[in-house]
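User: I'm putting together notes for a lab meeting next week and I want to include a structural view of one of the chains we've been expressing. I don't have a solved structure, so I'd like a prediction I can at least talk through. The sequence is below, exactly as it appears in our construct file.
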Amino acid sequence: MICITQLLCKLIKKTGGSALLIDYGHEGEKGDTFRGFHKHSVCDPLINPGHTDLTCDVDFSILCQAVKNSDAKVKLHGPVTQAYFLINMGLFTRLKVLLSKCESEQQKDELFSACEILVTNEQMGSRFKVVAITPELESDSVGCEQQLPGFTPLSGTPYAQPNSV
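Assistant: Thanks for the context. Below is the predicted structure for the 165-residue chain, given as structure tokens.
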């Protein structure tokens, strides 16, 4: 993960563009998270090779350290929770627009349920983290902080603080 992250930083510096990384993970507080899944249940990852999905949580502290240690001049944004990111990207404004176009209460319930899954701590809201890597701008080096949507509080938005959702 370190080598891939540092290569990504070099590519961003060389060719421009940005990277937005969203995945389930932690910021260094967990140990080994390697596990297997078979038929939607956690199982021993070494049993039944070829029939078990293997996964682990991303350690965002290592990813962020790899960006900071990269010799490429790039800017790291985050990590923030998925809830923080989506809310500060205007999720509730978008939800309001979609709800106004619903033709039934069932559609409204489905939208609320989907939104709840994305932002509540019990679901994906705090389990998933978001990081962005962008080119470092000239203004960054002279003290003007680069503001990236989703990583800074959206004015008038509830839960606008990184750890308040």
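A couple of points you could mention at the meeting. The chain is about 35% helix and 20% strand. Residues 100 and 108 are 9 Å apart (CA to CA).

User: Perfect, that's what I needed.
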